[in-house]
Amino acid sequence: MKTVTANYHTHTRRCNHAVGADRDYVENAIRAGMKILGFSDHTPMIFLKERYGDYYSGFRMRPEQAEGYFRSVLDLKAEYKNEIEIFAGVETEYYPDCFPGYLEFMRQFPLDYMILAQHFVGKEAPGYDAFDPDPSPVRLQKYYEAVLEAVKTGLFLYVAHPDVINFTGAPDVFEAYTRAFLEALLPLDPVLEINQHGHLGNRNYPNPEFWRLAGEYGFRAIVGVDAHDPAELLDSERIGWCRNLGETCGLRMMDSLPICPPEL
Questions:
Q1: pLDDT tens for residues 59-103?
Q2: N or C: which end of the chain has fewer CB within 10 A?
Q3: Are 2 and 220 within 8 A, CB to CB?
Protein backbone atom coordinates (compact mmCIF):
# COMPACT_ATOMS: atom_id res chain seq x y z
CA MET A 1 0.00 0.00 0.00
CA LYS A 2 1.44 3.35 -1.04
CA THR A 3 1.61 5.97 1.66
CA VAL A 4 3.16 9.43 2.08
CA THR A 5 6.38 10.63 3.66
CA ALA A 6 5.20 14.22 4.15
CA ASN A 7 1.90 15.74 5.23
CA TYR A 8 1.42 19.51 5.34
CA HIS A 9 -2.28 19.51 6.26
CA THR A 10 -2.75 18.89 9.98
CA HIS A 11 -5.23 20.46 12.40
CA THR A 12 -5.42 20.97 16.15
CA ARG A 13 -8.22 21.25 18.69
CA ARG A 14 -8.08 25.04 18.38
CA CYS A 15 -10.30 24.91 15.30
CA ASN A 16 -13.14 23.44 17.40
CA HIS A 17 -13.77 20.46 15.12
CA ALA A 18 -10.54 18.44 15.52
CA VAL A 19 -9.52 16.15 18.38
CA GLY A 20 -6.30 15.05 20.02
CA ALA A 21 -3.31 16.81 21.51
CA ASP A 22 -0.73 18.41 19.24
CA ARG A 23 1.80 15.84 20.40
CA ASP A 24 -0.49 12.98 19.33
CA TYR A 25 -0.31 14.13 15.71
CA VAL A 26 3.49 14.16 15.84
CA GLU A 27 3.69 10.72 17.45
CA ASN A 28 1.36 9.19 14.85
CA ALA A 29 3.17 10.83 11.95
CA ILE A 30 6.36 9.18 13.20
CA ARG A 31 4.57 5.83 13.55
CA ALA A 32 3.34 6.19 9.99
CA GLY A 33 6.93 6.60 8.78
CA MET A 34 6.56 10.24 7.81
CA LYS A 35 9.65 12.41 7.59
CA ILE A 36 7.81 15.75 7.48
CA LEU A 37 4.75 16.98 9.38
CA GLY A 38 3.29 20.40 8.77
CA PHE A 39 0.68 21.82 11.10
CA SER A 40 -1.80 24.00 9.21
CA ASP A 41 -4.76 24.64 11.45
CA HIS A 42 -7.58 26.92 10.33
CA THR A 43 -6.04 30.35 10.63
CA PRO A 44 -7.45 33.23 12.62
CA MET A 45 -9.24 35.62 10.28
CA ILE A 46 -9.40 39.38 10.64
CA PHE A 47 -12.92 40.17 9.46
CA LEU A 48 -13.86 43.68 8.39
CA LYS A 49 -16.47 44.94 10.83
CA GLU A 50 -18.21 47.06 8.20
CA ARG A 51 -18.89 43.91 6.15
CA TYR A 52 -19.19 41.18 8.77
CA GLY A 53 -20.34 43.02 11.87
CA ASP A 54 -19.70 40.91 14.96
CA TYR A 55 -19.51 37.64 13.00
CA TYR A 56 -16.69 35.23 13.80
CA SER A 57 -16.56 31.70 12.45
CA GLY A 58 -16.63 28.85 14.93
CA PHE A 59 -14.46 26.51 12.85
CA ARG A 60 -11.11 28.28 13.20
CA MET A 61 -8.79 29.36 15.96
CA ARG A 62 -9.36 32.85 17.29
CA PRO A 63 -6.67 35.56 16.99
CA GLU A 64 -5.77 35.29 20.67
CA GLN A 65 -4.97 31.58 20.21
CA ALA A 66 -2.40 32.10 17.46
CA GLU A 67 0.53 32.79 19.79
CA GLY A 68 -0.06 29.55 21.70
CA TYR A 69 -0.46 27.62 18.46
CA PHE A 70 2.91 28.70 17.08
CA ARG A 71 4.62 28.24 20.44
CA SER A 72 3.31 24.67 20.66
CA VAL A 73 4.45 23.78 17.13
CA LEU A 74 7.90 25.29 17.66
CA ASP A 75 8.30 23.44 20.97
CA LEU A 76 7.42 20.14 19.26
CA LYS A 77 9.75 20.97 16.39
CA ALA A 78 12.65 21.30 18.83
CA GLU A 79 11.70 18.26 20.89
CA TYR A 80 11.36 15.90 17.91
CA LYS A 81 14.08 17.36 15.70
CA ASN A 82 15.94 14.06 15.50
CA GLU A 83 12.83 12.07 14.51
CA ILE A 84 10.76 14.22 12.17
CA GLU A 85 10.85 17.65 10.54
CA ILE A 86 7.99 19.88 11.73
CA PHE A 87 6.69 23.08 10.15
CA ALA A 88 4.27 25.74 11.35
CA GLY A 89 1.70 26.67 8.74
CA VAL A 90 -1.93 27.73 8.47
CA GLU A 91 -4.90 26.89 6.27
CA THR A 92 -6.28 30.11 4.85
CA GLU A 93 -9.30 31.37 2.95
CA TYR A 94 -8.77 34.19 0.50
CA TYR A 95 -11.12 37.13 1.02
CA PRO A 96 -9.71 40.10 -0.93
CA ASP A 97 -11.19 42.78 1.33
CA CYS A 98 -9.94 41.08 4.53
CA PHE A 99 -6.59 39.90 3.18
CA PRO A 100 -4.41 43.01 3.82
CA GLY A 101 -5.44 43.13 7.49
CA TYR A 102 -4.97 39.39 7.78
CA LEU A 103 -1.43 39.53 6.40
CA GLU A 104 -0.55 42.37 8.76
CA PHE A 105 -1.74 40.27 11.69
CA MET A 106 0.23 37.19 10.58
CA ARG A 107 3.53 39.05 10.22
CA GLN A 108 4.11 38.78 13.97
CA PHE A 109 4.33 34.96 13.87
CA PRO A 110 7.05 32.53 12.66
CA LEU A 111 4.97 31.31 9.72
CA ASP A 112 6.55 28.66 7.48
CA TYR A 113 3.79 28.42 4.87
CA MET A 114 0.13 28.94 4.04
CA ILE A 115 -2.13 26.55 2.16
CA LEU A 116 -5.15 27.91 0.33
CA ALA A 117 -8.46 26.29 1.26
CA GLN A 118 -11.49 28.12 -0.05
CA HIS A 119 -14.56 26.84 1.79
CA PHE A 120 -17.01 29.55 0.76
CA VAL A 121 -18.35 31.17 -2.37
CA GLY A 122 -18.30 34.91 -1.82
CA LYS A 123 -18.90 36.14 1.70
CA GLU A 124 -18.24 33.71 4.54
CA ALA A 125 -21.62 33.01 6.10
CA PRO A 126 -24.23 30.24 6.29
CA GLY A 127 -25.66 29.53 2.85
CA TYR A 128 -22.43 30.26 1.00
CA ASP A 129 -20.69 27.01 1.93
CA ALA A 130 -18.93 25.31 -1.00
CA PHE A 131 -19.94 21.91 0.44
CA ASP A 132 -23.62 22.64 -0.18
CA PRO A 133 -24.97 20.90 -3.32
CA ASP A 134 -25.90 23.43 -6.00
CA PRO A 135 -26.43 23.14 -9.79
CA SER A 136 -25.59 26.79 -10.48
CA PRO A 137 -22.76 27.29 -13.02
CA VAL A 138 -22.47 30.89 -11.82
CA ARG A 139 -21.61 29.65 -8.34
CA LEU A 140 -19.09 27.19 -9.77
CA GLN A 141 -17.44 29.95 -11.77
CA LYS A 142 -17.29 32.29 -8.77
CA TYR A 143 -15.60 29.60 -6.75
CA TYR A 144 -13.00 28.98 -9.42
CA GLU A 145 -12.42 32.72 -9.86
CA ALA A 146 -11.72 33.10 -6.13
CA VAL A 147 -9.19 30.26 -6.16
CA LEU A 148 -7.48 31.64 -9.26
CA GLU A 149 -7.21 35.13 -7.76
CA ALA A 150 -5.70 33.68 -4.59
CA VAL A 151 -3.11 31.60 -6.45
CA LYS A 152 -2.02 34.71 -8.34
CA THR A 153 -0.79 36.23 -5.06
CA GLY A 154 2.03 33.67 -5.02
CA LEU A 155 1.69 33.31 -1.24
CA PHE A 156 0.39 29.76 -0.97
CA LEU A 157 2.34 26.51 -0.77
CA TYR A 158 -0.49 24.67 -2.47
CA VAL A 159 -4.23 24.61 -3.10
CA ALA A 160 -6.08 22.31 -0.71
CA HIS A 161 -9.10 20.39 -2.05
CA PRO A 162 -9.63 22.50 -5.20
CA ASP A 163 -12.49 20.12 -6.03
CA VAL A 164 -14.47 20.87 -2.86
CA ILE A 165 -17.17 22.83 -4.72
CA ASN A 166 -20.26 20.60 -4.76
CA PHE A 167 -21.62 21.25 -8.24
CA THR A 168 -24.67 19.09 -9.01
CA GLY A 169 -25.47 20.38 -12.51
CA ALA A 170 -24.88 18.76 -15.87
CA PRO A 171 -21.53 16.94 -16.34
CA ASP A 172 -20.76 18.78 -19.58
CA VAL A 173 -21.19 22.12 -17.80
CA PHE A 174 -18.84 20.98 -15.05
CA GLU A 175 -16.27 19.93 -17.61
CA ALA A 176 -16.46 23.19 -19.56
CA TYR A 177 -16.07 25.42 -16.50
CA THR A 178 -13.40 23.22 -14.95
CA ARG A 179 -11.36 23.16 -18.15
CA ALA A 180 -11.51 26.95 -18.36
CA PHE A 181 -10.35 27.18 -14.73
CA LEU A 182 -7.50 24.71 -15.21
CA GLU A 183 -6.33 26.42 -18.40
CA ALA A 184 -6.19 29.77 -16.57
CA LEU A 185 -4.40 28.12 -13.64
CA LEU A 186 -1.86 26.18 -15.69
CA PRO A 187 0.69 29.00 -16.31
CA LEU A 188 0.93 29.50 -12.53
CA ASP A 189 1.83 25.80 -12.03
CA PRO A 190 0.37 25.43 -8.52
CA VAL A 191 0.44 22.21 -6.56
CA LEU A 192 -3.07 20.84 -6.04
CA GLU A 193 -4.05 18.68 -3.08
CA ILE A 194 -5.94 15.39 -3.25
CA ASN A 195 -7.68 15.46 0.11
CA GLN A 196 -7.80 12.32 2.24
CA HIS A 197 -10.26 13.77 4.77
CA GLY A 198 -12.91 14.17 2.07
CA HIS A 199 -12.50 10.53 1.10
CA LEU A 200 -12.69 9.50 4.76
CA GLY A 201 -15.97 11.36 5.20
CA ASN A 202 -17.52 10.11 1.93
CA ARG A 203 -17.93 13.71 0.80
CA ASN A 204 -18.26 15.00 -2.75
CA TYR A 205 -14.46 15.23 -2.98
CA PRO A 206 -11.99 13.98 -4.05
CA ASN A 207 -13.91 14.30 -7.31
CA PRO A 208 -12.45 11.81 -9.83
CA GLU A 209 -13.74 13.84 -12.78
CA PHE A 210 -11.91 16.95 -11.58
CA TRP A 211 -8.70 14.98 -11.20
CA ARG A 212 -9.10 13.32 -14.58
CA LEU A 213 -9.20 16.76 -16.17
CA ALA A 214 -6.32 18.07 -14.05
CA GLY A 215 -4.28 15.05 -15.12
CA GLU A 216 -4.86 15.87 -18.78
CA TYR A 217 -3.14 19.21 -18.17
CA GLY A 218 -0.28 17.62 -16.22
CA PHE A 219 -0.72 19.45 -12.93
CA ARG A 220 1.45 18.74 -9.92
CA ALA A 221 -0.43 17.19 -7.01
CA ILE A 222 0.16 16.04 -3.46
CA VAL A 223 -1.87 14.01 -1.00
CA GLY A 224 -3.06 15.99 2.02
CA VAL A 225 -4.26 13.98 4.98
CA ASP A 226 -6.16 17.01 6.33
CA ALA A 227 -5.93 15.29 9.70
CA HIS A 228 -8.59 16.29 12.24
CA ASP A 229 -7.78 13.24 14.35
CA PRO A 230 -4.30 11.77 14.95
CA ALA A 231 -5.62 8.38 13.80
CA GLU A 232 -6.06 9.73 10.26
CA LEU A 233 -2.30 9.91 9.88
CA LEU A 234 -2.20 6.12 10.24
CA ASP A 235 -4.93 5.44 7.66
CA SER A 236 -2.64 4.06 4.96
CA GLU A 237 -5.55 2.55 3.02
CA ARG A 238 -7.26 5.89 2.36
CA ILE A 239 -3.99 7.75 1.92
CA GLY A 240 -2.97 5.12 -0.62
CA TRP A 241 -6.32 5.46 -2.41
CA CYS A 242 -5.69 9.19 -2.87
CA ARG A 243 -2.16 8.59 -4.12
CA ASN A 244 -3.41 5.97 -6.56
CA LEU A 245 -6.11 8.34 -7.84
CA GLY A 246 -3.48 10.93 -8.70
CA GLU A 247 -1.21 8.45 -10.44
CA THR A 248 -4.09 6.87 -12.38
CA CYS A 249 -5.20 10.30 -13.60
CA GLY A 250 -1.69 11.16 -14.81
CA LEU A 251 -0.89 13.88 -12.28
CA ARG A 252 2.70 14.68 -11.38
CA MET A 253 2.64 13.39 -7.80
CA MET A 254 4.90 15.18 -5.32
CA ASP A 255 6.32 13.44 -2.25
CA SER A 256 7.40 16.65 -0.50
CA LEU A 257 7.59 20.37 -1.18
CA PRO A 258 10.28 23.00 -0.58
CA ILE A 259 9.31 25.30 2.28
CA CYS A 260 10.00 28.99 1.79
CA PRO A 261 8.17 31.32 4.22
CA PRO A 262 5.81 33.63 2.32
CA GLU A 263 6.76 37.29 2.02
CA LEU A 264 3.80 38.84 3.79
A1: 999 999 999 999 999 999 999 999 999 999 999 999 999 999 999
A2: N
A3: no
